[in-house]
Amino acid sequence: MTTDPITTRHTFTFLSLGDSYTIGESVPEADRWSVQLAKMLRNEGVDVAAPEIIARTGWTTDELQTAIKASNNQKTYSLVSLLIGVNNQYRGQTLETYRTEFRELLQTATRYAGGNAGRVFILSIPDWGVSPFAQGRDRRKIAAEIDAFNAVAQEEAAKLNIAYIDITTTSRTAAGDPSQIASDGLHFSGQQYRQWAEQALPVVKTLLAK
């Protein structure tokens, strides 16, 4: 878990919740997707602070929720992102458990957004099956399971009118492209994360304009 203390006042603040894909396992801090997104927003004249991050490699939905509670973070933010679920899939957890815990996380994210679900956005679970780490595994099964988890996330987000951004399709373009994979052979590179940030940019600009 990391937090980036805001030493300069900005118009908008940003909290990013998740797992290895949010903390940016095996990439420099500047390459994290949410850090890149904040920079893109500033470049377009949207005065948003660098994101504060609550994320760790390996976290499932329940572990993220536990960490959020342990952080005792009582602040509210202009913008809150959530990307979580790959470890639920990897560990073989059920869709029913994921639905229940993801729903709770959406409520938590909304509280951090000052009760405004219109300032929360979701990124879908990327497909780690395209990575070299997945060699010898059933990549089609991995993809199908990730799609099923993402369907749950999209359904729950829709119930609360929370923005949902599909970066799974984008992640699958990394198959066979070493430049889009991090040095650990499992996670994605800053180049892939930049594409996620680019996808999120117009959505987030609309959210912040409301």
Question: What are the key terms here?
Answer:
5-stranded parallel sheet; 210 residues; single chain; globular; alpha/beta
Can you walk me through this structure?
The chain is an alpha/beta fold and 210 residues long. It has helices at residues 20-23, 33-43, 61-71, 86-90, 95-112, 139-159, 168-171, 190-209, and strands at residues 14-18, 52-55, 79-83, 120-123, 163-165. Strands 2-1-3-4-5 form a five-stranded parallel β-sheet, with helices on both faces. Strand 4, helix 6 and strand 5 form a beta-alpha-beta unit. Helix 3 (61-71) packs parallel to helix 5 (95-112). The protein is globular and about 50 Å long. The model is unreliable at 2-7 (pLDDT under 50).
Short account of what is shown:
The protein is an alpha/beta fold. The protein is built from 8 helices and 5 strands. The protein starts with 13 loop residues before the first strand and ends with a helix.
Sequence of secondary-structure elements:
EHHEHEHHEHEHH
State the share of residues found in helices, binned by percent: 40-55%
| Biggest beta sheet attributes | 5 strands, parallel
Radius of gyration over C-alpha positions, nearest whole angstrom: 16 Å
Strand content: 5-15%
Shape: globular
